[in-house]
C-alpha cells in the first residue's frame, strides 16, 4: 500500500487527494494517451524546513516536451510553478515521489489527439527504496522494447508502459526482480523503467539514444558525473553477451536511483562494485545538497512554519 500525500492538484485546483477522481469514460484511460513525469523529493537533512528536488528544471522540460506529442501546449514554467505549490501545500516530512501527468481528459471514444480536451494533474506518494540497494536479479525479457517509429520514445507516454508491465511481471513470475528488454535489433535497450549501465575494463558502457531508450535524466546525470571523475563513458549498442561477463552492471532512474545488478539470468555478477559505489555515493551527496559543485542541480523549496 502507498501512503499518498494528502493534497493533489487536479482540474486547475488543489484539493484533498481522495477527491481527485476521474470518470471511467476518460479518453486516456482507454487509449493510453497520457504522458507522465516522476521526480523525487526529500526533506533537507541539514535544514528540515525546506525540501530538495533533484533537477526539477529538467523534469519539467521533459514533461512539457512529452505533452507536445499529445498536441498539448503546457509550458515547463507552469509545471514547475504547480509542483512547487504542490510541495508547499503538502509539506512532506519524509522521502517522497511526485507524479505529474498530462492526459486527454475528454469522455469521447474516438482514438485521436485533435479536437479533444486535455488536462494536467499532480499527486505524490511517500517512497523509500524502489529496488533493493543491495542489488537485484534480472532476466532477459521475451518482450521487445518498442521502436521510435511506432511510439514517440523521447516522451514518457503512458501507453508505452504496457510493455514494461508485461516484462516486469514476467520477470517476477520467473523468480527475478527485474527485466532487461532488448530492442528490435536484438541489442540491449533498458530495464522495465530504468536505464542500464555496464562496466567493463574500467569503462562505462550504456545503450546510446538510437537504441530505443528513454533519455533518462538520472542517466544523463550519471554520464556527466562519471566523465567529470575521469571515467570514460561510451554510448553504443550493447550485446546481451556483454552483460554476462561485465565487471559491474547497474540500473538508473528517478525511482531506482542507482541500483546494482547482482545476477542476470543464471550468471552471477561480481559483488565488488567500485564504480557503481563511487557514483552512487556522489549522486546521494548531490541529492542531499552536500556537494557545492552541483548545487545547481538541486531545487530548494522553503516550507512555511
Automatic annotation (TrEMBL):
Pathway: Amino-acid biosynthesis; L-valine biosynthesis; L-valine from pyruvate: step 4/4; Amino-acid biosynthesis; L-isoleucine biosynthesis; L-isoleucine from 2-oxobutanoate: step 4/4; Amino-acid biosynthesis; L-leucine biosynthesis; L-leucine from 3-methyl-2-oxobutanoate: step 4/4. Coiled coil: none annotated. Its EC number is 2.6.1.42. Keywords: Amino-acid biosynthesis, Aminotransferase, Branched-chain amino acid biosynthesis, Pyridoxal phosphate, Transferase. Gene3D superfamilies: 3.30.470.10, D-amino Acid Aminotransferase, subunit A, domain 2 (3.20.10.10). GO terms for biological process: isoleucine biosynthetic process; L-leucine biosynthetic process; L-valine biosynthetic process. It is an enzyme of class 2 (transferase). It catalyses: L-valine + 2-oxoglutarate = 3-methyl-2-oxobutanoate + L-glutamate; L-isoleucine + 2-oxoglutarate = (S)-3-methyl-2-oxopentanoate + L-glutamate; L-leucine + 2-oxoglutarate = 4-methyl-2-oxopentanoate + L-glutamate. Pfam families: Aminotran_4 (PF01063). Its cofactor is pyridoxal 5'-phosphate. One of its GO terms (molecular function) is branched-chain-amino-acid transaminase activity. PROSITE patterns: AA_TRANSFER_CLASS_4 (PS00770). NCBIfam families: ilvE_I, PRK06606.1. Acts on leucine, isoleucine and valine. Belongs to the class-IV pyridoxal-phosphate-dependent aminotransferase family. This is Branched-chain-amino-acid aminotransferase.
